[in-house]
Specification:
This protein is mostly helical and about 80 residues long. About 80% of the residues lie in helices and about 0% in strands. This is DUF3243 domain-containing protein.
């Protein structure tokens, strides 16, 4: 099973990678930039595996570059906040 098959699994995967990046001393700006690159790659090179990913992919496609950076930052915050809930 791919981490992309289930949105909760995807978020848990992102949270693990976020934790690793932070433990290696990466700053928030670097992490958000990497999230943008991952989002852009997935939007251009993979098909949505569930309804949540389909919505994100449609929003990403409609968004400007600045809006895409904001979406990537929001995804980072989403998985950060899950760990604090």
């Amino acid at each position: 099973m791919s981490v992309l098959d289930n949105f909760d699994t995807w978020k848990a995967f992102l949270a693990d990678r976020l934790e690793q990046a932070q433990s290696q001393g990466m700053g928030q700006e670097t992490i958000s930039s990497m999230a943008y690159e991952v989002g852009d790659y997935l939007a251009n090179n993979s098909s949505a595996k569930n309804s949540e990913e389909a919505v994100l992919q449609e929003i990403w496609s409609a968004a400007s570059e600045d809006e895409r950076h904001a979406l990537a930052s929001a995804m980072v915050k989403l998985v950060q906040n899950q760990g604090n809930a």
